[in-house]
# Entry
Amino acid sequence: MDFEKIIAGKICTYCKCKTKIVLGEIIYPHKIHEIPRPKYLDKCFYQCIHNIDHYVGTYADNKTSLGRLADAELRKWKNKGHNIFDPLWKEKIVFKSQSEAYAWLSQKMSVTLKHTHFGMFTIEQCQQAIYFCEQL
# Structure
C-alpha cells in the first residue's frame, strides 16, 4: 500500500479501500443538538467507504488530513498520546516548543520528522511514544 496515501487519509488501512470526505454531522450525528461539539459538525473528515467507524479529521482547510484513518481503538491511543505528549511542550514542562518536542520524539522513535505525529502513528507507535514520554 502507498504509505503517503494512507497518512493523507486517501486509503483506509483496515479495508484497503478509498475514502470519501464527509461533514462532521455524518461522523457525530448524535452531537447535532448538543452544545459541546457543534464545531465538528461543519468540519470535514475522511471516512472509509466501507466502514463508517474508520475516519480521520482534517486541518482548518477541510482538505488536509490529520493523518491515517483510525478505528475507535486507534483513536483512543492517539488521544492518550496527545494527552501525555502535548503538555510537555505546551506547558513548557520539558520542551520550549512543539518543534523541539517532535524533533526529540522523532529521534527517540527513529521515525522521520515528517512522519512523527500521532495522527500518522499506529497503535504500537502511539504506545512507544507514550512510553518515551512517561520516561521523561
Summary: The chain has five helices and three strands. The beta strands are 19-23, 44-48, 55-57. The longest strand covers residues 19-23. The chain has a mean pLDDT of 92.
